[in-house]
Design goal:
The chain is mainly beta and 349 residues long. It contains 1 helix and 22 strands.
Length: 349
């Protein structure tokens, strides 16, 4: 019962985060419908004007999306003026005065300072303030299944998803899946897993992380496997068309088996996460995680996911994916390797 409550908690958090995204999306749609849409504008120091939309603001660069050239990276020192049409959050560096430390409105940047395009109940704005970027959300949710009836009645259902919240310094990743299969009303597969990770970026590339996961698998004798760990990572690429990161750290693993003797140990952890657009719109992805016990290389856990995600309509996609899980010391009578080939439809944002 305790294990079920913990797994359900992870899924509730996941869908709560997803619903918050949809709620935010509805608000943004309402604002855009109720007022004329204006493009963001950048004026460079050489006099050139660029129109489009701000994608991401870094410490030294700004990623800007245009209709005619796609996404371009502009050095901040070359920008003379920046005007945004979408709401921005402005945080004052000194709130000693009788003003709110955080205000919202359209931002107009000139030189080292900022002016608000929206009228505010204050005489002036400190030139030493900065733009607070907040979190940018992206992710996907997929649903797959199959039903056969006749001499053998079978059913298969899979639900999985991932949500990523990213700011300049922080990244939160929440992922979860659940599988259930039956043959003649008898369960032949029943498992689920949820994972939460927080990354704090020390620089544009280097970050520290902490993560935790909960896993349950009836047919691998796993009543509940919980992990907690921390370490460091390096973001090799983080772009709209490709992403690559590697991580290394230490995890504590606690496995409560239904029948076998429970297992608890400290492990070294290695992880890689990679995705890249191929053929302009098809996304190839691969990620793996390796957990090796301090007791030796024989007691190792490996989780891999490799696949292709193909767009079929606006924000809708089809996914084919191969998952391979390996346990060096499984419960008695269980196989070391589990493979699953998946086909699903999903929604991405």
């Amino acid at each position: 019962m305790r294990a079920l409550v913990l797994v359900l908690t992870v899924f509730i958090i996941f869908f709560w985060a997803l619903s918050m995204y949809f709620f935010k999306t509805l608000i943004v749609m309402f604002l855009f419908v109720s007022q004329a849409v204006m493009a963001d504008t950048i004026k460079l120091k050489n006099g050139d004007l660029i129109t489009g939309s701000v994608v991401k603001k870094g410490a030294d660069t700004l990623l800007f999306k245009t209709k005619y050239a796609g996404e371009i990276e502009i050095t901040r020192s070359e920008i003379a003026k920046l005007k945004t049409s979408s709401p921005e959050s402005v945080v004052l560096t000194d709130d000693a005065a009788n003003i709110q430390p955080q205000i919202f409105g359209r931002v107009k940047g000139e030189g080292g300072g900022l002016k608000m395009a929206k009228a505010l109940n204050m005489d002036a704005i400190n030139a030493g303030m900065k733009v607070a970027e907040g979190f940018e959300w992206k992710g996907h949710i997929n649903l797959g299944g199959a039903v056969t009836q006749g001499n053998t009645d079978t059913s298969l259902l899979r639900l999985d998803g991932e949500a990523i919240a990213r700011s300049e310094r922080d990244r939160i990743t929440l992922s979860a899946y659940a599988n259930r299969a039956q043959t003649n009303d008898v369960d032949t597969e029943l498992n689920s897993k949820g994972k939460l990770q927080y990354d704090y970026f020390l620089t544009e590339k280097r970050f520290l992380y902490a993560n935790t996961s909960l896993e349950k698998d009836q047919f691998r004798d796993i009543g509940l496997r919980s992990t907690f760990g921390f370490g460091s990572g390096y973001q090799i690429f983080e772009q709209s068309d490709r992403n690559l990161s590697v991580e290394a750290g230490i995890n504590y693993i606690d496995t409560d088996f239904d029948d076998a003797e429970d297992d608890r140990y400290i492990s070294a952890r290695w992880s890689l996460k990679y995705d890249q657009l191929i053929f302009q719109s098809v996304k190839f992805f691969h990620q793996h995680e390796v957990l090796m016990s301090e007791e030796g290389a024989n007691n190792v856990l490996v989780f891999t996911q490799t696949g292709l995600r193909v767009p079929i309509a606006e924000r809708l996609n089809a996914t084919t994916q191969l998952n391979v899980d390996y346990a060096g010391q499984p419960a008695a009578g269980r196989e070391k390797t589990d493979k699953m080939l998946l086909f699903s439809l999903g929604y991405g944002w």
